[in-house]
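Handover notes (outgoing to incoming on-call)

Open items:
1. 3-phosphoshikimate 1-carboxyvinyltransferase: sequence verified, structure written out, both below. Nothing else pending on this one.
2. Nothing else urgent.
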Amino acid sequence: MSLWSAPAAGGPVDAVVELPGSKSITNRALVLAALAEGRSTITGALRSRDTDLMIGALQALGTRIEPYGDGSDPTALSVVPGPLHGGAVDCGLAGTVMRFVPPIAALAEGNVSFDGDPQARVRPLGVVLDALRDLGAQVVGGALPFTVFGSGSLEGGIVEIDASGSSQFVSGLLLSGCRFRHGVSVRHRGTPVPSMPHIDMTIAMLAAAGVAVSTEHSGNGVDTWRVEPGPVRAVDWMVEPDLSNATPFLAAAAVTAGRVTVPRWPRTTTQAGNAIREILAAMDCRVTWADDALTVEGPERLRGIDVDLRATGELTPTVAALAALAHGPSTLTGIGHLRGHETDRLAALAAEITALGGRAEELDDGLAITPAPLHGGTWHSYADHRMATAGAILGLRVDGLQVEDVETTGKTMPDFPGMWAGMLAGSGAVS
Ligand SMILES: O=C(O)C1=C[C@@H](OP(=O)(O)O)[C@@H](O)[C@H](O)C1
Ligand SMILES: C=C(OP(=O)(O)O)C(=O)O
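3-phosphoshikimate 1-carboxyvinyltransferase structure tokens:
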């Protein structure tokens, strides 16, 4: 396994960092384009492992996806839907592929087999497959690998699920729901659904494609989303920069009393990563938004934070790294579902911070982190892109930290080590 010497910041980081497109927006745009009435285009698409897996999955089912324009820009895509047929889908470790594509497979004519990375086989998926069975699909298996025996159409209707394990269970059913014969009503019963902004993103993108979703939140643990049957409009999608992937770079400013600017930060967005603004401000960073760019300036002493990350769990590895370098303890809660992410992120963060001499304790639904002097060592990534970027943040302040398998960042970023080096160039970094 490769080891990457995480560069230490010799002084305050001062940089402008351009981020590639959002994974969540790109993969929703691809799905909606594959289900649409005609050709869509996607501009600013993320090209990374997760999005290339989505492209591969949709191509395997009959969608034509190719470069748009003169072909020189891999982030400009043309998507032409075709009749959906059987095929083989590699999900890799992508939650969006394993949860969003099975409902499409149920609409295909033919058998669609799914598999993925070894770690993907233990990610929660049964809820989606059971829901599809309840809606009339024939599915064999309860986790990866499994097969959907598509018959060309799906009855749809009302389905009750427990989506407390992942918002993607809901998003996946809603994205394809209008193509089911009776549409779909997804009723969640259980503890609160995590990552609600991601469901808002699904609803907003469906609306942009002419598909209305009505919602009902009863307040007693029951939420219902309804999509009527009907067509998906073709759209020219413009993808925002990935705000969750921006967070390690903004954290670099926070932990070095530096300054990092991210251009093209949207004024309004459904991306969960937007929450980093409030989190960093609460940790005493100066956060300003001007001329479409977000700038974070780090304080001399970063303040610890007590924060509920249920809606924005994706940010946990970044926030945990910040907390380990702060002054004063932090508690991160509402994130029990992170045990089903790329790895068990609560266990992984607690183990790795502790191994460097820090104090991090797993809670039922989160982490308690008390800053302590950290020493160098190997930071294990567990095939988790956000574990690797959390290690890079710590490495800015901890000499001799080596991140194992930094290549895993390719899940959602094409060249994280290059971008990190670019940020540090001119900031006195030493590796
Ligand atoms: O729909 C999406 O694009 C995502 C939803 C969230 O999943 P969970 O609800 O499983 O946390 C998020 O963490 C993931 O990175 C992307
Ligand atoms: C949880 C994540 O990914 P996935 O889409 O694979 O669930 C993530 O990117 O933090």
